[in-house]
Amino acid sequence: MNKPNKKLVVASTIVVMAITLSACASTPSINIPGIGRVGGSGAATDPRAAAAAAKQVKVTTGSIENHIVATGQVTARQAVNLEFVRSGTLTKILVKEGDLVKAGQVVATLDNSDLTLSAKQQWDNYLLAQAVYSQTLKGPTTADLQNANAAVWGASAAYNALSVGPTEAQLAGLRATLQNAQADIKQKQAAYDKAYSKNQGGIGATPESLALEQSTNALNLAKANYDNAFAKPSAPTLAQASANISAAQAKVDALKPTSDAIDQARLKMNQAFDSWTQADNTSKNGTIVATFDGLITSVPANVGDQVGSNTVIATLADFATPQFTVSVDEADLGNIKLGQDATIALQSYTGNHLPAKVSSIAHAGTTVGNVITFKVTLDLVPAKDQPNILMGMSGTSQVITSKADNVVVVPAALVVTDPRTKTTTVNVLDVDGTSKTVTVKTGLANADSIQILSGVSAGDTLLAITRAAPTVNTGIPGARGFGG
């Protein structure tokens, strides 16, 4: 970047001093107010002829501006290095230098197969937890509740039967079963006795023997059931029956969506989602995307490279609105304001003055030697037929610090300021063809022009001497006066 060169352009003040030189009586001179005494070595000069010999400038209205000039370079609004946040093998680079990209566009990727699989597994776990939470909110089905309640009722009935004892109906049933068993065994015994009398040795293999055995077993069972109906249950038996009731009831309660159950299901679902988010983010860390719309200015990496978290894969610059950055002297900074108009002349496009505006002023200065400068940024204003502007192009800017339009403006060379009285004057051509000195009040000024606030008006004619000063005899033999 070229070393900044800047200056505040102010009014050019020309001091014209009349020099009165000694001359012979035979060489009179003529005095033109504001110009000085002019004449030749011979005859006197007419004031009208002297005025006519001066350059005449017609006073007009126009525009005038003050500006600060500074050199600088075209820069991007922002530029970032695109890097991965983890290490890996670079598998794809989807951009090249000079490409325009959109925010979110994929720039490069790492080998990501294992992380992608892990993220998918975590997603499946989240879906399962979500289903459990949804079912917990919904609660059990009618069939589930009916089955669970039936188990409670059954366990309760069993407990009551143990603790209260049999009812009369139950006893009547048990008694009837016992009596039937007793009557049946009498019949089976009679049949057995008859068969025995005929075949004592082979009685064990006869049907009558088998029928008697079965009838005996039925009688014993009926008698045991009848006797047990009057027996009191043991403490362990009652405790187990009570435990069966509690277990059945717990199953019923577990089916109901309590607030604790809902909270637990929600917590598990959220934890599953967080696990998936972490796995998904880790997976995405294997992909670089453009963080904003911009221009790829460099791609230093190559496919197959082993890259780390600080490896620059590509550089992205926001070049939608090019900027021009300059350094302004501390003494000039007070004249710089945000939003001021400016023009930029790039070395690559001679004579093309690009419009711009002041967009930022640095809050901290930079000291180089004994000079303190501040960074000032200008936004180039899009214009019709604007040339191709590239980053790093150098040029010169002019920041317009003040401007006046449709005012009286005269060439700076025609305005004279007396260094002693500080009075500012111009030479005005009078109606009779002679000139006169007029005191004026000035406004804005630059190296070329000065604004006149009062003293002359548009249409007046100003005078300036354009010829060389005359040769004057100094009275010293062998010496010549000013002008040669």
* CATH class annotation of the domain at 78-112 and 286-316: Mainly Beta
In CATH, the topology of the domain at 78-112 and 286-316 is named: OB fold (Dihydrolipoamide Acetyltransferase, E2P)
Rg over CA atoms: 57 Å
* Sequence stretches where pLDDT stays below 50 over 5 or more residues: 1-44, 467-484
How many DSSP-defined strands?
A: 25
Query: Beta fraction of the residues?
Result: 25-35%
Output the CATH homologous superfamily of the domain at 78-112 and 286-316. RNA polymerase II/Efflux pump adaptor protein, barrel-sandwich hybrid domain
Strand order of the largest sheet: 5-14-18-16-15-19
By secondary-structure content and strand pairing, the structural class works out as: alpha+beta
> Mind describing the biggest β-sheet?
6 strands, antiparallel, barrel
Mean pLDDT, rounded to whole units?
80
Q: Could you estimate the helical fraction of the residues in percent? A: 25-40%
Shape estimate: rod-shaped
Q: Kindly report how far apart the N and C termini lie.
A: 48 Å
Explain what this protein looks like in three dimensions.
By secondary structure, the chain is an alpha+beta fold. The chain has eight helices and 25 strands. It has helices spanning 47-53, 113-138, 142-164, 168-198, 207-228, 235-255, 259-284, 330-333, and strands at residues 7-8, 30-32, 36-38, 55-58, 60-75, 78-82, 88-93, 100-101, 106-110, 287-289, 294-298, 306-307, 314-318, 323-329, 341-346, 353-361, 366-368, 371-380, 394-411, 416-417, 424-429, 435-439, 441-445, 449-454, 461-464. The strands form six sheets. It has a six-stranded antiparallel β-barrel with strand order 5-14-18-16-15-19. Strands 6-13-11-8 form a four-stranded antiparallel beta sheet, with no helix packed on it. Residues 1-44 and 467-484 have low confidence and may be disordered.
